[in-house]
Amino acid sequence: MVWRAAPAHVLGYMAATLVGAATPVALAWLTKAVLDGLAHGRTAALLGLAVTIAVVTTVAAAAAHATQYLRGEVDRRAALRAKDELFAAVTRFTGLTRFESPAFLDRLRLAQQSAANPGRLVDTATSTARGAVTVAGFVGSLAVISPTFTALVLLSAVPALLIELRMSRQRVAMLWRIGPAERREVFYAQLMSTADAAKEIRLFGLGDFLRLRMLAELRTADAARRRMDRREFVVQASLSAVSASVVGAGLVWTILAAGRGELGVGDVAMFVAASAGVQAALNVMVSAGVMAYEQLLTFRHHVEVVSAGSDLPAPRDPQSLPALRRGIELRDVWFRYGDDHPWVLRGVDLFIPNGSTVALVGLNGAGKSTLVKLLCRFYDPTRGAILWDGVDIRDVPPETLRSRIGAVFQDFVAYELTAADNIAVGDLSAVEDGTRIERAAREAGVHDALVALPRGYDTLLSREFDPDPEESSEAEDAPTSGVPSSSGVLLSGGQWQRLALARAFLRSDQDLMILDEPSSGLDPEAEYEIHTRLARLRSGRTSVVISHRLGAVREADRIVVLADGRVTEEGTHASLLADDGTYARLFTRQAAGYRDDVQPTGAAR
Ligand SMILES: Nc1ncnc2c1ncn2[C@@H]1O[C@H](COP(=O)(O)OP(=O)(O)OP(=O)(O)O)[C@@H](O)[C@H]1O
């Protein structure tokens, strides 16, 4: 992947690294030649040797700078590609299950970490190669002086390599084990630094509680890292002591041999340079090689995320999805969120006729939102089937199905984007189409509020990002008072809800519109107005509406009561009231609340 991301830079980096690796060997040989020349009075060649040393040193210095620049560039390009691959894969997951799986989220975090600088792998791999070049260069020189000693130095590196490889596997396993603690630590840290949670944290005095929890997670992760570091420290110190003793013994032997006249001054200089060079290079080789191995092991998470197939079974024989004509049928649909979770739906049979509005009603946790998530195929039913004009929606590519559906979810997202973009996310083909965006905003009754914003539709709906990053980065002085120089705007809860509705209006020609609590944050007048508008816009189209405000759904063509995971009542408002069941009880209770308030006024009259 790194090669594909930056082939020329990788080649340049390797070349510059190899030049850097060959330099100490060349300098050692040149120094030996100079010393031998001086010892034997061969002064004629000295000038040439000195000039060569100067040139080699200059080239080495330039190569060092080039290596640094190229390494950075390889890192940047590879990281860009890795993130692109990773997030392209993440957005390709069609269902929601993976985002609710702690093990997957742990893996994703490690994948993100390794995607942050995959070029480091080239770095460590090249360092290993660089070490190998230096070792090879020096080994020849050392072997001339003492083959036995050379063999000893090389052999002493083998156990070090094996032990380090084992430890790197242990380190990777440790990183996986502490993943959950590290993810929780990040969670607490983010909670303490976001505006969304700031109100409750301050009012409930949660600051210390969250900080201590964050530190506890950090300590847990640190303890595991510390144990690993200590083990590595002991092992590495012992290995270094062994190799230092080998080199020390060799040095003693060389000096004694030189004293006996068996070796020349140049040989001693070469031995000192070569033994130190070999040892240092072997260390680099082992540690860089082991690090490369460790990075490869960690990068496995990236590969696994990127190569993970679809989380929902792909249709074996994909069907096209004609415009809805008859309706959508849920046939004996059973669903639970996991094998160890309770059943949420237990055999739901429901028909949503084309062109009608079906309201789903039921107590908290009855499974209404779950049902609409199944309609969008964010999950597949555990048993049973959902049929769109008789076609099982599992036989249709999810993107085809979803292009037919418009929705306002209960937990819609307030994007920290401009107001226009916040509406356009409902249908990205409208991003550049101000007229469509404005029409949708008018239909949702939020146009006036948006034009009144400091920059109208182009106002950034965020207090966390600077609306004018360029202007403020040009300003010489950072604000010191703690008060931001400029800031974006936030909407009220109801205005946000209208904005979410505008997203849905942008797609109002869809076959199926899902409205999960579309008016919970609206004032009574707005609620009435929006529902009237919705009824007009959606007349003759298929909608599924969920609302706890039963007054808002009484006009629905069909009202369906969910309880205990099943459809327990079904009919029009009038027929359900006549049946005097759960719906009638809920409606009467809600209506009584309003009537009690109204009565005193009526009595006064
Ligand atoms: N992603 C999830 N993972 C596990 N359980 C879930 C998930 N979403 C919902 N549940 C569980 O499924 C049940 C039904 O939840 P659902 O949100 O569908 O209810 P609802 O009828 O829409 O409730 P409300 O009226 O409160 O919005 C609840 O018991 C809830 O705890």
UniProtKB/TrEMBL annotation:
Residues 462-489 are annotated as: Disordered. Coiled coil: none annotated. Pfam families: ABC_tran (PF00005). Gene3D superfamilies: ABC transporter type 1, transmembrane domain, P-loop containing nucleotide triphosphate hydrolases. The keyword ATP-binding applies. Residues 467-477 have a biased composition (Acidic residues). It is a multi-pass membrane protein. Residues 14-294 form the ABC transmembrane type-1 domain. It is found in: Cell membrane. SMART domains: AAA. InterPro entries: AAA+_ATPase, ABC1_TM_dom, ABC1_TM_sf, ABC_transporter-like_ATP-bd, ABC_transporter-like_CS, P-loop_NTPase, Type_1_exporter. The keyword ATP-binding applies. GO terms for molecular function: ABC-type oligopeptide transporter activity; ATP binding; ATP hydrolysis activity. It comes from the Bacteria. Residues 478-489 have a biased composition (Low complexity). The chain crosses the membrane at residues 12-31, 43-64, 138-163, 233-256, 268-293. Residues 328-589 form the ABC transporter domain. Keywords: ATP-binding, Membrane, Nucleotide-binding, Transmembrane, Transmembrane helix. One of its GO terms (cellular component) is plasma membrane. PROSITE patterns: ABC_TM1F (PS50929), ABC_TRANSPORTER_1 (PS00211), ABC_TRANSPORTER_2 (PS50893). PANTHER family: ATP-BINDING CASSETTE SUB-FAMILY B MEMBER 10, MITOCHONDRIAL, ATP-DEPENDENT PERMEASE MDL1, MITOCHONDRIAL. This is ABC transporter ATP-binding protein.
